Structures are given as structure tokens and as C-alpha cells.
Amino acid sequence: MNSKPKIGVLALQGDFMEHVHILSPLNVEPKLVRYADELEDIQGLIIPGGESTTMDRLMDEEFRQAIVEFYKKGNPIFGTCAGAIILAKKIIDGKDWQKSLGLIDIEVKRNAYGRQVNSFDTIINIPSLGTVMRAVFIRAPEIVNIGPKVKELANFEELPVLVQENNVLVSTFHPELSSNPSVHRYFISLIK
Question: For the segment 10-66, what is each residue's pLDDT rounded down to a tens digit?
Fold first, then answer.
């Protein structure tokens, strides 16, 4: 019997394989998730970076409801970049038809750090994880407001870039593009 926890990575669009690569050496079993019923045998879910509006269009209402139920069972969910937009309570500049899941009390602004050509990386300090790491921002959203129960784990230029509320963790940067697995290791530690 395999005792490794299974971590699902939403594989509808985006950089899901980069998450699989960083998870593989961390004593978990990564699993690509493309259908709602595949949430049933995982213990954590990562919603990767990519294009939030495209992912939104690819998730039907059954899939959305399955993710909400997964969350309500106490399973951890980690959203990076576009995943943060999908999990946010409010999208300031979203498309009229775009629906976030509202699972973390944050307001985000899409593509706030600029277009693809404005992508950059920098070093950020994450004191609660006892690490510094390279943070890659690609058409990244900006967290412009956090609710009272949201804990800021890291910031860049005084804006939150890694936050957590209960079992939901989000980053506006791409930790899967760093060689430092600290954020993913922390996410795994949230599994009950």
C-alpha cells in the first residue's frame, strides 16, 4: 500500500507540469486532475499559474462545486498566480462573466505587474518558513486587500505575495519555478 499523500494538480491549462516536477522529490504522489471526480482520492490540490479566464471557462459548475466541497472537507488548496485569482473572494478587474471560487478573503487585480514582457524575478524573504527564495512574477496578479483572518507570509515592495487563510494558501508568484521547494513543502504540511 502506498502511504504517500496524493497531491492533485489541476491540469486544465497552465504550468501544471512544473508543480509535478517540484512535488516529485517531496515524498508525495503528484496526480494530474482534469475531472471533478478525480478530487475524490487526493489529499491536497494545487491550482497552477496560467490564464485565469481560460481556466475559468474550462471549469464547469460541477467542477467548481467539487472544489468547494473538497475545501469544506478541510483539504488544503494552493493557488499560484492564476490560481490565486481563481481562489480569491473578489477579482477587481475580472471579465464580466468570470467567477472566482471565493475560498480566501482577498481582493486581487489581474496582471497588475504588467504584460508578459514585464515578467521578472526577485529574491523574497519568507520568515515564517525560515527561507529566502527566488520569486518569479509572470503577468502576476496583485493582492490589493486581505481580510482580517488572512495571514501574510511574505511580501514584495510592501504588497502581500504569499498569504494563507485556514486551508487555502495562495501566491502571486511562481514558487514552482524556483529550485527551493519550501512553499510546496509547507503546503504539504497542511494535509491533516
Answer: 999 989 999 999 999 999 999 999 999 999 999 999 999 888 878 888 888 999 999
pTM given for the model: 0.93
Q: Return the active site residues.
A: 81, 174, 176
Q: How many angstroms separate the CA atoms of 171 and 141, rounded?
A: 9
Element at 46 (helix H, strand E): strand 44-47
Q: DSSP label at 12?
A: S
Q: What is the pLDDT of residues 156-186, one digit of tens each?
A: 999 999 999 999 999 999 999 999 999 999 9
Spatial contact of 115 and 153, defined as CB atoms under 8 Å apart:
no
Q: Compute CA distances 46 → 11, 20, 54, whole Å.
A: 9, 10, 16
Architecture of the CATH domain 6-189? 3-Layer(aba) Sandwich (3.40)
Separation between Cα atoms, residue 76 and residue 62, nearest integer Å: 19
